[in-house]
Amino acid sequence: MRSQTLFVLTLTTSPALADFTDFSSDTIGFVPNGFVSVDAPNIVFSDTVGADLRLNDWALQSDGIGLAILDDDPSRLRMDFVENVSEVFLDFGNDAGYVDGDGIIWAWMIGYNGGVQVASTSLMSNDDDILNQTIGIIGEFDAAEFYYGDSIGNPIDHAEIVDNVRTAPIPAPSSGLIALCMLCASTRRHR
Questions:
Q1: Is residue 106 scored above 50 in pLDDT?
Q2: pTM metric for this prediction
Q3: 128 lies in a domain?
């Protein structure tokens, strides 16, 4: 008589969590480069020119507390990720009042992996000074930068204000539950 035994081994992985911050759990005031929001431990925020990051309720330019990159210089908001992410999105405000060049503010987001630019996107602002536009990129990133620039990507001297920053983790090779089934055939002889 032949019997077959099915062994099922299930392995679970701790899924990486998405990060989201609206900065509502953070203290208002200036924050240093390398700032990490209480709500988003995977995102490290820095100013690429100086150290002019400030949390505040910017009225219509943020959704409650928002993060500003101040001093109207050509700096960018740098976001380094402790673990790589598959997407980065944020809302932006303070997108009116630029008077140099063609007078139009473009929002830019650049994605990096291993120090190499791997994605970029831009969006012409609606010039209403209200936090009501979203920009984002999808791919695999260990860092991203957001800034205001002209239509060809040159940074402009204008303070950025961002809020509702969100990322998604890199999916596991076999997302969710990994099931490994082994079929063992055994032969038994009965006498």
A1: yes
A2: 0.82
A3: yes
Residue 65: count of CB within 10 angstroms of its CB:
19
Alpha carbon distance 127, 115 (integer Å): 32
- CATH assignment of the domain containing 89: 2.60.120
Looking at residue 97, what is its pLDDT? Answer: 73
Residue 3 maps to a domain: no
Q: Minimal CA–CA distance to 21: which of 138, 163, 149, 142?
A: 163
CB 13 within 8 A of CB 52: no
Which residue carries 């993060």 as its tokens?
67
Farthest-apart Cα atoms in the chain, separation:
96
**pLDDT tier for residue 77 given thresholds of 50, 70 and 90:** very high
Structure-token pair, residue 15: 């899924």
